[in-house]
Write a structure and sequence with these properties.
Distance between the termini: 133 Å
Number of strands: 7
CATH class of the largest domain: Alpha Beta
Structural class: alpha+beta
Radius of gyration: 33 Å
Number of helices: 6
Helix content: 55-70%
Strand content: 5-15%
Largest sheet: 5 strands, mixed
Strand order of the largest sheet: 2-4-5-7-6
């Protein structure tokens, strides 16, 4: 009987020790899990703080851009660069309001996501918190995109306000055009190295040295060449494989004018919008690809040279821009 009781007691003690060991291990595992959750929470809070700081920087940059925009508006008013100030102001307000609305909307949504993220962290829900953090990051990318859009508009306006024919000096027009064409093509290919196009140049050697503001005219040429390459790329995206993108440039002395013609066989311009292309902020490009100031700026520069900038286009077949500069 004593032996039986002793054996039972030994078994009981062993069982209790195993239970005690199990509880100790369970407690240690629980503490390890808590430590892991604490580290994850700290990491996520750090990410939240970093993203919030980025958001503050984006908003500050936008405020700075708006300040520069106001300054550019004053310069435009003083120099009376536009025939209708009311139309310009309306265009400015419309263009800057679009990216500003996006920034404000995404900022508000991000603020709500930050509150949701903090709640998830308090509730030890790391998976949900990570998903919210990803949403915050996507919103910040969109805020950055539209902030840059606003910045591009402001820079374009500042460029507009700085237009000045300055001093005209004898310049080799043919050489300037050839160099600008290569510069534009190289710049375009840095954005898309799969794009290729052919050039055709027909330069009148009688042009020789011509008195112009070379820097200003080069800006016009760059705008026209960039638009030509853009139209060619758009058409090549949808055209058959045998489509050969071509940009043709010619110079000619005609009557009392120097004529510069830039032709592409790209998408062309629809008749219903061709009368609007020289208006400030008018663009057919996707958001972020253009501010709509390039052709307006070019028109002003040519006018400042007492010349004319005209356009001829066939929708789907191509476009020709013609610059006419007076010889005298």
């Amino acid at each position: 009987m004593v032996v039986l009781f002793t054996g039972f007691l030994i078994v009981f003690v062993i069982s209790q020790r195993k239970k005690l060991q199990y509880h100790k291990e369970l407690h240690a595992l629980h503490e390890a899990q808590q430590e892991s959750l604490t580290q994850q929470n700290l990491l996520l809070e750090q990410r939240v703080d970093e993203r919030t700081a980025e958001l503050v920087i984006q908003k500050n940059e936008l405020q700075k851009s708006l300040h520069e925009l106001n300054r550019a508006q004053l310069q435009l008013i003083q120099r009376e660069k536009m025939a209708s100030l009311g139309e310009l102001t309306s265009g400015i307000a419309h263009e800057i309001q679009n990216p500003l609305n996006f920034v404000n909307n995404f900022s508000e949504v991000t603020r709500e996501l930050v509150a949701e993220l903090r709640e998830d962290l308090k509730n030890n829900e790391p998976d949900e918190a990570m998903a919210v953090a990803d949403d915050i990051e996507q919103n910040l990318e969109k805020i950055s995109l539209h902030g840059k859009r606003a910045d591009g508009i402001v820079k374009g306006m500042l460029e507009h306000s700085r237009v000045d024919t300055g001093k005209k000096e004898p310049t080799d027009i043919n050489k300037l055009i050839a160099e600008t064409l290569r510069l534009s093509y190289s710049s375009f290919r840095t954005k898309d190295n799969t794009f290729t196009a052919s050039f055709e140049t027909m330069f009148d050697e009688q042009v020789g040295q011509f008195p112009i503001n070379a820097q200003a005219l080069q800006r016009v040429l760059l705008n026209l060449f960039n638009n030509a390459f853009y139209a060619l790329k758009q058409k090549k995206t949808h055209a058959s494989n045998d489509f050969n993108p071509v940009v043709s440039v010619s110079t000619k002395i005609s009557d009392e004018n120097l004529l510069i013609a830039i032709t592409d066989n790209g998408t062309g311009i629809p008749p219903n919008i061709i009368q609007k292309i020289f208006q400030p902020f008018f663009t057919t490009k996707a958001t972020g690809e253009g501010t709509g100031l390039g052709l307006s700026l070019s028109y002003d520069i040519v006018k400042a040279h007492e010349g004319e900038l005209r356009v001829e286009s066939v929708d789907g077949d191509g476009t020709t821009f013609l610059i006419a500069l007076p010889l005298n």
